Amino acid sequence: MVDVETPDGERFDHHKVYLPSAAVLAMVDDLDRVYMMWRHRFVADLWNWELPGGLVDAGEKPAQTVVREALEETGYALTGDPEHVVMYEPMIGTVTSPHHIYIARGVVKVAEPTEKNEAQRTAWIPLDEVPALIAAGQIANSGTLIAVQHLLITRLAK
Q: Which of 42, 100, 103, 106 is the right S-S partner for 23, CB 3.0 to 4.6 Å?
């Protein structure tokens, strides 16, 4: 519980939840496809396409997290530095949990994933197919939605 004072002077107690920071990576290849993982999320009990990512470990920078998570979850290594797109708060009214979105336009397969339970299947999905997946409810993760929408918007701006 925290004591809140609004700009007009009203005071009240409010719950505030602290969760770790997370980072998500959209890997895009030369054919304008994004690497995605089909996985079940037991809390919401739904299957959806997601991007690799995870919690930022203690002492780690979010950019290091996406490099580590990409290798662990996909077996891909980045050929350059990831591009930071945005930091956002997914539930800003009650929860603080900074989420960082990154884009990588160069990756190379160097190993098999070590995180075996991250995805039932994976695919390089053409960006042209992403709006239909969103409309069908097959992309529900907020970090994935923000990242792929960024890719679509910036592609239109070119």
A: 100
